[in-house]
Structure formats: structure tokens, C-alpha cells
Amino acid sequence: MFRTVLIANRGEIAIRIGRACRELGLATVAIYGEEERDAPHARYADAAFVIEAGEATRPYLNGPGLLAIARRAGAEAIHPGYGFLAENAEFARAVLDAGLIWIGPAPDAIAAMGDKIAARKLAGEAGVPLVPGTNAAVATPEEAAALGAGWGFPLALKAAGGGGGRGFRVARTAAEVPDAFAAAAGEGQRFFNNPTLYAEKYIEAPKHVEIQILADRHGGVIHLGERECSTQRRHQKLIEEAPSPAVDADLRARMGAAATALARAVSYEGAGTLEFLLDADKNFYFMEMNTRIQVEHTVTEEVTGIDLVKAQLRIAAGEPLPWRQEEIALRGHAIECRINAEDPARGFAPTPGTITEYKEPGGAGIRIDGAAERGFVISPSYDSMIAKLIARGSDRGEAIARMRRALGEYLIGGVASTIPFHQAVLAHPVFVEGRAATDWIERDGVGRDLPPAELPPAAEDTPAPQAREYTLEVNGKRFAVRLFADADPAASPPNGARPATSRQRATPKGGGKAAGGGDGALISPIQGTVLRVAVEEGAAVKAGALICVVEAMKMENEIAAPRDGTVRDLAVATGETIKIGAKIATIA
């Protein structure tokens, strides 16, 4: 076993990996961007180094910088977590070429599964059921529209390098194809540096069920059962559970056999997840393989008793799997809610800002994987996750009851959160009865009647408290320390933010509000970068028409016209930064 691991990630997954390393007696090295100098994940590690963005768009994408820190810190292995460089085959090769251990699958397996078109071909050759679709790139909207006409709409357009719900759009008619094509290709380019698209027939109202696998370098491959991830918004997961209420032992065995067959076909090594769609007749179809640890790995750990991150570390060290397939059993039920800094009442608009109040729930069967605390800043530069809340019970009913209790205990101030939405979902008969499908949130309008969160004014509108700066030396290491003159944390939280005006504790009641003023002003509900302006000055629009697309916290948000009218005073342009409360246009 290697002795020191560099964790090439941030936030809750960096702490999760650090905890597994600590239990195995391994030293950890963290990295942090300049704005996260005092972040919990940096403090948790045995050593932490600042990393600049370099030629990358974000510091955590700076591959050469990461390798330089690994050499400086004496790290022998690199764990990428998920996101960022976790599924980057070129970075994995660079790690190996530098003489370091890559805690993940071989670069060739990453590349094979990372190209979704190639992955479809390999899955078909391995006998895995596929959704009707193309095994080659779709070059033009016209070609895509012709496929839709042949298969029948709706049509799914997907980025070849995509994943996590990004680079995925659905066209329900031929008229919707051009916009869906442009949006999917644009997102593929921005997130994966690859605008190539392929097409599939879109399966209506499926369940999203995935199989967790582990494979070692000695030919051992097992699956750990399934997770269901059908509660989504914009094709991105919000709630996951294991096992799936729709899967019986026979279906689990067949899906597991398909998953392990594909893993063997690409000589897979490490932890991985194969994602499937499950239709109303219990037919399953391969979607993609994620060659990394998943956000929702926690629920599989809770029902199998297997620490997946420790398994990754041991596999990377060359150890064989200590389990046989027949020894894997699922006990009880686990549910994970992603607690994000988003306002469900405003279409899940991200709400970056400072957490001014924070109290986690506890008690039997409750687990928190997080990296948040009072004073922590939710940056618009990264995703919106605050923490993952996991509840385990002896059966699904007990897991639901514990999750509802824990959500009621969870206090977060200063930013909006998805807690009220999760409370609404956990009380909804569709979820309680196990009938959730990937479109049910939008179809049933879950969360539409939640009132917008009451938030404090933006931090830049509030004078920051006065500080005096000191340099503190501990055990030969120097730290910059800021002491604030006002010792009352309620009066002056870190970064100058004001205390929250409300606590999101009980399930709210009432209706939401549109982002439009009485004078026709269209106001931005989020802070981010304008990716696209869909209208011109003087254009006539209908209520609901797309005005612009704003990227915030790794999410694309469509801003629509609140009413019929003419676009006046258009105040945004592609590439510009826009703040919460800024005027986009007037619809008069």
C-alpha cells in the first residue's frame, strides 16, 4: 500500500476520501483554489497546497499544477474523486507517466467509456440491451430531425463526451430539434470540450436505475446491486435510494450480469457505475458508464456494508477483491437527498452566498457527507452542493420516516436550499409508493407551490467588518489569520454577509413568484454568465419564450418571458456576468 495520497478535488468528496485514507493509515494532501484557502477540505488533510488555475479555467482542472504539487508533497498516488479530472483519460495517463499511482480505471477504459458513442458499440458487443439510437455522430439538426421522424418523437440528443445530465436535450417535435441540437452541442463543448452529438429514441417516463461494480486487476468483477435515481430535475439527480423499489431479485441478477459483462469487456479496474433506463415493462437499456466513484455511492455503502472508497484504494494498491458475488447481500434501505444551494421555487436557481447558520441533524440511521459550516461561502464558481443527507432504515418505510425527521432538523441560513423540496417529495404519494419516473417532478409540478426563499442582501452590499491581520506559526508552518473587531458572530459573520432573515425548517406553504416586475421588468433570479441571448431588441415574444441562458454553478438556467409583449431595454449580452436582481430586459 502506498503511504500518501493527493486528493485532486474539493468539498465533501475530498473529505470523504480523506476519511477513508485516515482509517487505512494513509497521509493525505489537499489542494485548494485561492478563494478556498480556509475551506474545510483543506483543513482536514495532513497537508494542503494552493493551486493556481494556470491555463485551465478552474484551479482544480490544472493537471500540470496537480502533478507538481504531488511531487513537492511526496504523494505516491492521486485520487480524483468525481467531476473535474476524474474521467479525463489524458490526465490519468499523465499521472501514470509521472510514476504515480492513479486511483481509478486504466486510461484506455476511461477513454472507451467516456465516448458515449464508442460505449454504445462496446455495450452492444457485450450483449447489453441498448435504446434504439445511433452508433455514429449526428452532424446536423436536419439529420437529427430525420431520425426522429423515422423512430418517432420524442428524440434525445446527447453529447458524446457528456454525463451527469449535461449535454442532454429532448426534442418532442421536429420544430424543437434546432434549439435542442444547439443547446446539447454547446453544453458538450463547454463542459467536455467536445460538441459531438449522438441521438437516441427518448423513452417516456422511465426509471433511472444504476448498477455499482467493483473490479480488480486480477480478473475479479462483482456488482453491489442497484440504486434508483429517478427523482431528477433537468436530468440531474436530486434523490437516490438503494435498493430500487422496482427491482426484484431476478431483474437485479440480469442487470448485474450485464454490468459485469461490460466491465470485463473493457478490462475495467476500480469502482464504476453502469446506468440504465427501466421501462414500464421492466425492460432495461444501457445509457452510459461512469468510470469513477459516484455522488450517490453512499446508499450502496449503507445497504452492503462495503466502503467503496477504501475498496478503490485497495484495488489501486494491487489487492484482489475480498468478496465473491454470492457473498453480496442488500440489507435494509437507504435514501440520499442532495442538499443544494438552490431555490426550488425559482426553478432551482442557484443561490451562491455565505452560510450564516448551520446545524446538521443526527440520530439513529442518519449520515451526513458534507464540507459546509457556518461562515462557509457557496461559490458561484463551483457546483451548488452543500451536503449529502443519508438515511438508513430496516426497510424503505423506516428510511423515509428517518429522512423526513432529519430534514425537519436540518437548519441552513443565508442561502436557499433544496430542503423544502425534499420535504415535499418525501411526503408525495408518487415517491412514497415507489412510482417515481425521471419526468415526474416536472409532470406533477412538485415544489411549484413553495414560496421563494427569503435571503439576506448580497454580501457586496454590506460593509465588511474591520479586521487586523496576523501571521501565525504552528510547528514550523505559517498561516495568515484575520481577526475581526466585532466578536458577535450574529452581528458580523465572515465575509461581511448579513444573518439570514428566515430558517428553512418546516415545509413551506404558499405560491412562488415570477422574476418579473409590475412594470414589465425581467429581473435575473441568479448570478452567473450569460451564455446565449435568444431575442433581439424589439422582438415580440409570448409568455414562456426563452430570453437568455445564464450559467451559474455548473448549471444552465433558461430565463423566460413572464408575459406576452415586446422586448425593450435589452441589457445583457453573451459572455457578460449578471448579478441577482439585475435587469435583463423589459417585456412591455
From TrEMBL:
Residues 445-465, 488-519 are annotated as: Disordered. Residues 513-588 form the Lipoyl-binding domain. Its cofactor is biotin. Residues 120-317 form the ATP-grasp domain. The keyword Cell cycle does not apply. GO terms for molecular function: ATP binding; biotin carboxylase activity; metal ion binding. Residues 509-519 have a biased composition (Gly residues). Its EC number is 6.3.4.14. Residues 1-446 form the Biotin carboxylation domain. Keywords: ATP-binding, Biotin, Ligase, Nucleotide-binding. Pfam families: Biotin_carb_C, Biotin_carb_N, Biotin_lipoyl, CPSase_L_D2. Residues 449-465 have a biased composition (Low complexity). It is an enzyme of class 6 (ligase). PANTHER family: CARBOXYLASE:PYRUVATE/ACETYL-COA/PROPIONYL-COA CARBOXYLASE, METHYLCROTONOYL-COA CARBOXYLASE SUBUNIT ALPHA, MITOCHONDRIAL-RELATED. NCBIfam families: PRK08591.1 (NF006367). This is Biotin carboxylase of acetyl-CoA carboxylase.
